[in-house]
Specification:
Layout (H helix, E strand, L loop, with lengths): L2 H18 L5 H18 L5 E6 L2 E4 L2 E2 L7 H8 L4 E4 L5 H14 L18 E4 L9 H5 L11 H15 L6 H15 L18 H19 L4 H12 L10 H4 L7 H7 L2 H11 L5 H9 L20 H16 L10 H10 L7 H20 L8
Antiparallel strand pairs: 1-2, 1-4, 2-3, 4-5
Helix pairs in contact: 1-2, 1-4, 2-4, 6-7, 6-8, 7-8, 7-9, 8-9, 8-14, 9-13, 12-13, 13-14, 14-15, 15-16
The structure holds fe (ii) ion (FE2) (2 copies).
Length: 388
């Protein structure tokens, strides 16, 4: 049995034992001590440990644990809003015992006694929802910390910033990290009972490319699922969408964030990013053809307009046409130095009005249906306001 699995078994065993015996009995204390030992063994190499509980599935870090497929405790935890359990450093036995008492109260094994005080001061234990509808915000901050601990994709955003920096400095595209970000976004989308659209709101202009890449990736995967594409296709769409603007690493900041209109020369520089991006992706040792095609084609119109000009009458590939719509929607929904963010309805209206000219009408129909559905769901959700 692997160490993560051994720890989770010991944890659930301790919880079950707490349900069977009263406080004074030695059995729960023994079970807690065993769970603590297993946790120490698990943290020996790296004290940072993260579990995610989804219905029917457990992840350790980003790895699905096949041994725990269908494990009943995963559902029990997820049902009471414990979708993530994280340890950020060594955990004392007393801290683990308090966590166990809290979990036991939460899953209804025991009455809550001092559940509110289960964590005090700086604790290495984190648990909560993999919330992700937006980037924190007032709603999340006002909710009690125990009930709702938002994971805000900051690490993923930093990872993308780093990936861009690596490519800008001439290093190879860090594929493993890019893939990990896509997995993480996909996980974020499926982490609640229903799917969520974890779109980020732009805070600083210099984060535009990272925020935008993640949002386009999420939108493209959501649209792929809405169109009932298979999971491998959805994942490669997410990957291609994440890297669609990779070529922007060649555009100087002053041009990227210029508040006014671009000169012709500046526009030429911007319009090179599809070609630069495709080259960067094709230079990578692995076959990144779909990503390279999407990077090359995502500004090409269905009527042949846009850029770069495609020789002959061949239109852009399906994946590129899909990413193009998600790309424009997110760009319009984001505040830019030269204009305010558009409301969702206005951005959707624009995309609809350009169906058959700029965008593939069939994909537009699906996109509009999906976004209208999301707008209704997000409007009804408590917590952070919709951010797309
Ligand atoms: Fe682009
Ligand atoms: Fe873009």
């Amino acid at each position: 049995m692997s160490e993560p699995v051994a720890f989770l078994h010991a944890l659930s065993q301790a919880l079950a034992t707490m349900g069977l015996y009263g406080d004074g009995h030695p059995a729960p204390a023994r079970a807690a001590a065993l769970a603590h030992e297993r946790l120490e063994a698990l943290q020996a190499d790296d004290p940072r440990v993260r579990f995610t509980f989804l219905s029917g599935e457990v992840l350790f870090g980003d790895e699905v644990q096949p041994e725990l497929a269908g494990w009943e405790w995963s559902d029990r935890f997820a049902d009471v809003g414990v979708e993530r359990l994280e340890f950020t450093g060594p955990v004392a036995l007393g801290q683990l015992e308090r966590l166990l008492a809290h979990l036991a109260a939460r899953v209804g094994i025991r009455a809550a006694s001092s559940a509110d005080a289960w964590q005090s001061g700086e604790s290495p234990v984190r648990l909560g929802l993999v919330a992700l509808a937006g980037d924190g915000g007032d709603g999340a901050a006002a909710a009690p910390a125990i009930a709702r601990l938002s994971f805000t994709l900051h690490e993923e955003r930093e990872a993308i910033g780093w990936i861009h920096d690596e490519v800008r400095s001439g290093s190879r595209l860090p594929l493993v990290e890019a893939d990990a970000v896509v997995r993480s976004l996909s996980l974020a989308m499926h982490s609640e009972q229903a799917m969520v659209l974890p779109l980020l709101q732009l805070k600083e202009f210099d984060q535009y490319t990272t925020t935008h890449s993640m949002n386009v990736s999420v939108l493209a995967m959501a649209l792929g699922e809405f169109l009932e594409l298979g999971s491998a296709a959805v994942r490669s769409l997410g990957f291609a969408a994440l890297l669609h603007d990779l070529g922007k690493v060649c555009i100087p900041e002053e041009i990227l964030n210029k508040p006014g209109k671009l000169t012709d020369a500046e526009r030429k520089v911007v319009e090179r990013h599809p070609v630069v991006g495709a080259k960067l992706l094709l230079d990578s040792p692995d076959a990144l053809e779909i990503a390279a095609v999407v990077a090359y084609e995502h500004h090409i119109f269905i009527d042949g307009g846009g850029y770069p000009l495609l020789p002959g009458a061949r239109g852009a590939q399906y994946a590129s046409r899909l990413v193009h719509i998600c790309d424009v929607y997110d760009a319009l929904r984001t505040r830019r130095p030269y204009r305010e963010a558009w409301e969702s309805e206005r951005a959707i209206g624009y995309i609809e009005s350009r169906a058959g000219i700029e965008f593939d009408p069939t994909i537009v129909r699906a996109f509009v249906a999906m976004m209208r559905k999301w707008d209704r769901i997000m409007a009804a959700r408590p917590g952070p306001a919709p951010t797309h």
